[in-house]
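seq:
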Amino acid sequence: MDNSIVYEMTEAAYAGRITLELIETVFLEEDNSAVFERLDCLRDLGVSLEVDNFGSGRASIVGLRRVAPDFLKIDHRLIEPVTTSESAGRLVGSIVEIGGALDIAVSAVGVKTAAHFEMIKRLGCTRAQGAYFYQPGALAEVCPLTDENVMRRFG
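struct:
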């Protein structure tokens, strides 16, 4: 996981929420009902489900519908070129549209610059994560940060 701060562009609460990040290989097990039953139990307990590094593996639309995660976290390798490539922007925009059609919010991972941040907001991502918000640091340095400080600096 990227050690940077997550910036949420919606009013939904994120701090203090337990989130399980799934990798796309979970979707290869579409016939394994036990996996999906366990995910449903976790969701019933209030655990948020996210698909990490979306676009780097083999997630299927059918698998996304079955798992119904709260977020798709677009792989940083797809976010990196959005400021320099029109086709990269269209691709990210398409992922956002797929997420919208499935009622799944989309998060951009690897946001490094203000230009990246502005572009992914225009493309419809609802969260962003990356070094633009805060450079990775030691736990003692990161813990004192509050949502208010992050919002004041980047909001």
